Each structure stands twice: as C-alpha cells, then as structure tokens.
Amino acid sequence: MPSPIQAWVNRTARLMPSANILQTPGFSTDESISGYEYRVRHCLVIAALAASLAVLPSAQATRAPRIVTLRNDGARLTLRKGMQVQLRLTERYRWHAPRVRGRAVRLVPIRYFRDPGYLAWTVTARSRGSAVVRASGYGLRTRECGSHRCAARVFRVTFVVR
Fold first, then answer.
1. Whole-structure pTM value
2. CB 79 within 8 A of CB 125
C-alpha cells in the first residue's frame, strides 16, 4: 500500500507529465525523510488548503444587483447593512407573497398606481446574517396551458448581510 505522499506523487505525475516532481531538489518519496522536512511539507499542504478554503465562501456570495429578478433564482447575494435592492417578479406567473426565512432582511411590497407588468418589493438589509426569500407561483395563459393553471415555479434567493 503506497503512502499518502507516494499516492499524491503518482496522481500528480499522471496529471502533469511534463512537471516531474521527483526531480525537485530535496524531494523524496521514500519514508526516510527527516521528521522536520515531513512537518514542514505537512504544514505547507495545510496552509495551502486553508488559504483555498478561506477564498471559497467569498467566491460563492456575489454582490447583489440593484434589481433582483428571476434570473437570480437560486443565487446567494451579498448586501451591506442598510442597503436596499428591489425584488421584481414577472406577472407571467401568479405569485404567492414571498416569504422570508431569517431576520437579516425585511420585505416591503411596492404598490404602483399603474401596472408596470411585474410585482415588486423593497428588500432592506437590517442586520448581519443571512435570509432566504422564497416565492412560489404558477403560470397563467401560456400556450401549453390555455386558461388553466400550470407550470409551477419556485423562486428562491439567499441574501447574506455583512
């Protein structure tokens, strides 16, 4: 059974045949490396892993656009405390009022005198944390359905407030 280091060397050699890690000065795959060298290499691997994991959460949450629509369905959006964005849902679907899970944001419906063709809410970032906004609806008057209900749709977006 090969050691973890030997297994890693073998996988790396298959992925990058031009970069032969065995020719690196001071690198050896046998178990005769000193305890100090092993600890240094072990610490380097852990540091590289920690650095990559530290970058991962910030890469997943993107900055929220001014207007959040169905295009942002399933997204994880970042807001600063006190920031406001607008949530717009098209009237091609009959939406139930969106529900908020979490205390980080507050939803306030926007009422228009003249119908703009969408339903809108103001999303205000209240406190640090995260909140999930979810709305469900169904399609109306599409070619496939005629005048009946069909084409169920669930909209979900996560707001992260910093």
1. 0.60
2. yes
